[in-house]
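Researcher: Next entry in the queue.
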Amino acid sequence: MSAVDDFPVELDRKADFPDVERLVRPNGVAVAGASPDKSKSVGGIIPLLEQGHCKGAIYPVNPKYGEICGHRTFARPSEEKANGGSLGI
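Model: Structure for this entry, 89 residues:
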């Protein structure tokens, strides 16, 4: 028996946690301050998302670069495409 089986309240996972799906399976991830420099903490995020089999689009946000790790960059998270992500890092 697991801890979930011992939980005293019956949960309808879809009704009680409707937004969790967007967190664990985002349709896109905007990476603010993305960098091609893998020695920086933000430089390693995009490769980690790719290795983690991120199914959604990756939107690097940094006005200094035109492309990072093969992904077109955006100057601001509010740009039309970058705004399509359901998760921001």
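Model: DSSP finds three helices and five strands in the chain.
Researcher: Noted, moving on.
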